[in-house]
């Protein structure tokens, strides 16, 4: 009986030790979905004579597959299918000059957007 108890204790300690070792402390948030959520702050949109702005607007970030979607409040059209690359630790950046000026920088606490496409301009300076 004592032998069985000792064996069970050793196996349990081994499993606990393995579980601690297998947990990564170097898990980069840029690989996770921590960017998904709502950021609040100043947002604007310009399309010819149409100008929309909100000092207390919001942008909801949604991830679908490898792309991100930005849903703006206050009647501002959404941005869809944006792809990112990692920049340093805990940050995603999209910079593209093919379709217009595109700069989106996002981390766990801030979102900055300057996005132009087909003569339309989106901006956001928002925080969580």
Automatic annotation (TrEMBL):
Keywords: Signal. Residues 1-24 form the signal peptide. It comes from the Bacteria. This is Lipoprotein. It comes from Prevotella pallens.
């Amino acid at each position: 009986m004592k032998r069985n108890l000792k064996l069970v204790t050793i196996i349990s300690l081994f499993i606990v030790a393995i579980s601690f070792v297998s947990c990564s402390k170097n898990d980069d948030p840029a690989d996770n979905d921590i960017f998904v959520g709502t950021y609040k702050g100043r947002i604007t949109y310009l399309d010819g004579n149409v100008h929309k702005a909100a000092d207390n607007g919001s942008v909801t970030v949604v991830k679908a597959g490898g792309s991100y979607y930005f849903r703006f409040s206050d009647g501002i059209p959404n941005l869809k299918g944006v792809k990112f690359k990692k920049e340093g630790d805990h940050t995603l950046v999209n910079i593209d000059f093919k379709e217009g000026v595109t700069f989106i920088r996002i981390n766990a606490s801030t979102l900055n957007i300057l996005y132009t496409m087909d003569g339309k301009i989106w901006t956001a300076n928002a925080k969580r």
